[in-house]
Amino acid sequence: MRRAVHRLRASLRDINFLPIENAIDLLSRGTTGDQATLPGNLLLEISYDTFTITPRDRLAQPDWPQLPEGLSSLAVTVPGRTPLPESRWVLDAEIVPARPEELSGGWTACLDADQLIGPLTLRPRQSHDRFQPQGMPSPVRLKDWLIGAKVPRAVRDRLPLLVAGDQIAWAPGVRVGQPFIVTDRTRRCLKLAFLKV
Questions:
Q1: How far apart are alpha carbons 63 and 196 in whole angstroms?
Q2: What is the pLDDT of residues 26-73, one digit of tens each?
């Protein structure tokens, strides 16, 4: 731990014992999202299977598409491209008649276009949200499900959820909603892809 602090703050001398011990204690007992302050304005943060030590002013954000803070909703252009404000990410959307080879995964998803009722929007999660992930028999609390799916804490509040009417159709990077999956009866697919430009 001292070597890590020294590597990031080479000029720092006489590192106090207490913050180092507190950080080590946090690593042995802490859970995902826990943080500890280290000397030299450094921050230790625990993730699912790693931990990070970084300068507070340069906190590493996961490289996921994210909506800017304060944005409540963004209309999706179909077909077309929807840029995420204050970001290099865009969402490409197109209607394709045939069942695509690859259905969904990562930043790409194919949904049954005829099941998407109402306007399509991107929005951040809300406290009351429920989501029925592909393969699940009934909806679950979105917050709990995102934690279980190991979506980074820094992303959860700004993840651009695809919403059809009032139902979450896709949690990008994670899973498509069960009511919108492509089946043998699907006639038209909506193919979506988040890209960096």
A1: 10
A2: 888 888 778 888 888 888 888 777 888 888 766 556 789 999 999 999
β-strand pairing of 74-75 with 189-196: unpaired
User: How far is residue 53's CA from residue 36's CA, in Å, rounded to a whole number?
Assistant: 9
Q: How far apart are alpha carbons 183 and 13 in whole angstroms?
A: 63
Identify the CATH assignment for 74-196 out of 3.40.920.10, 3.40.50.720, 3.90.180.10, 3.50.40.10: 3.50.40.10
Contact 57, 41 (CB under 8 A): yes
Predicted TM-score (pTM) of the model is 0.74
Please write the tens of the pLDDT for every residue from 82-125.
Answer: 999 999 999 999 999 877 766 667 899 999 999 999 899 999 99
Q: Which of 37, 27, 30 is nearest to 5 (CA)?
A: 37
- Annotated domain spans of the chain: 2-58, 74-196
